[in-house]
Specification:
heterodimer; A: mainly alpha; Arc Repressor Mutant, subunit A; two-stranded antiparallel sheet; 4 helices; 12% strand; B: 222 residues; mainly alpha; Rhopdopsin 7-helix transmembrane proteins; 7 helices; globular
Chain lengths: 85, 222
């Protein structure tokens, strides 16, 4: 779960236009793990891949944005009680 | 009946408001648990769910008690309500205490005395002049001391959290538990003056309002 959120946050930080290398370094992943988790996130429908002329990038779907908002609320709630998630 | 006559019904009304807030907290914690599968969030959910159930029963029996008195049928409903609410609080705060203790993973020098004091308090409760086969004496000092100790421990943990994070939401949670602890202190002192009982309930409600404020803040989209 945590790694999914990290990847999605990198995409969000890149203004919803994150190239694979940015996610790789931003989420501190190996290439194999990046491919694996990105595929899982695409299957969940929270991110989508967009092909450009010579490249591709990833963006959050509306579902992904809502999920991040929910997760952020849960993080803040847990932190308010002093619990880490 | 405890407290001034004019306050009868208002305490049940305040508890009804607290029920709604406690349920909202329980729901938020459940959402968090479903998302993260973190056990501590399950403990928070269960604690506040139990708390809201106890508050609801106490509140409803309080209202029924008013009706019973009106119909001249004193059945000791408020005592039954308080007993259920007391055990609900005991369970809820014990679970929350455990949640904080389990975070440290080990029973250290701080947590052991707290648990020992709680056990001692509970044992004292059994030895106190309280009818064991019937409802508890409403707001008996011994009952309230046990609860005060538990809530005070939780308040210190949340206070420590606030002091290290300086997070506004953490402050609201700390304030909430502090107000709840103070409410139990006033319930202990209420034999001195009925007004202290009123203040105790106001403090309790204020505590839950603080929880509500935290809930609004964490769900506010930034």
């Amino acid at each position: 779960m945590r790694i999914y959120v990290d990847i999605m946050r990198v995409i969000q930080r890149e203004e919803n236009h994150a190239k694979p290398t940015r996610i790789l370094y931003g989420a501190n992943l190996s290439h194999d793990r990046l491919v694996k988790h990105v595929d899982e996130l695409k299957a969940l429908g929270v991110i989508e891949e967009v092909a450009e002329v010579d490249d591709r990038f990833y963006k959050l779907t509306q579902k992904g944005i809502e999920f991040l908002n929910q997760f952020r609320a849960v993080e803040r709630f847990a932190a308010a009680f002093g619990f880490a998630i | 009946m405890v407290g001034p006559r004019w306050f009868v019904g208002f305490d049940s009304l305040m508890e009804l408001v607290a029920v709604i807030i406690a349920l909202a907290i329980a729901y938020q914690a459940l959402k968090g648990y479903r998302l993260t599968k973190r056990r501590t969030l399950w403990y928070v959910h269960f604690s506040f769910a139990v708390l809201s159930a106890g508050l609801l029963i106490d509140s409803l029996l309080g209202f029924l008690g008013i009706v019973a008195r009106t119909l001249r049928g004193t059945i000791g409903l408020t005592s039954i309500g308080y007993s259920i609410y007391f055990f609900a609080q005991l369970l809820a705060y014990s679970i929350l205490t455990y949640a904080y203790v389990s975070q440290t993973r080990t029973f250290n020098a701080t947590s052991s005395p707290v648990l020992l004091v709680s056990l001692f308090g509970f044992a004292t409760l059994q030895a106190a002049p309280i009818r064991l086969l019937g409802p508890l004496v409403e707001y008996h000092p011994v009952s309230e001391i046990v609860l005060l100790l538990l809530v005070f421990y939780i308040a210190t943990k949340t206070g420590t959290n606030y002091s290290s994070t300086k997070d506004q939401n953490a402050f609201l949670v700390f304030l909430a538990f502090l107000l709840l602890a103070l409410s139990h202190l006033f319930f202990i002192l209420q034999p001195i003056s009925p007004l202290l009982f009123v203040i105790g309930h106001l403090l309790q409600l204020s505590g839950f309002v603080s929880f509500l404020a935290m809930l609004f803040r964490v769900n506010r989209n930034q």
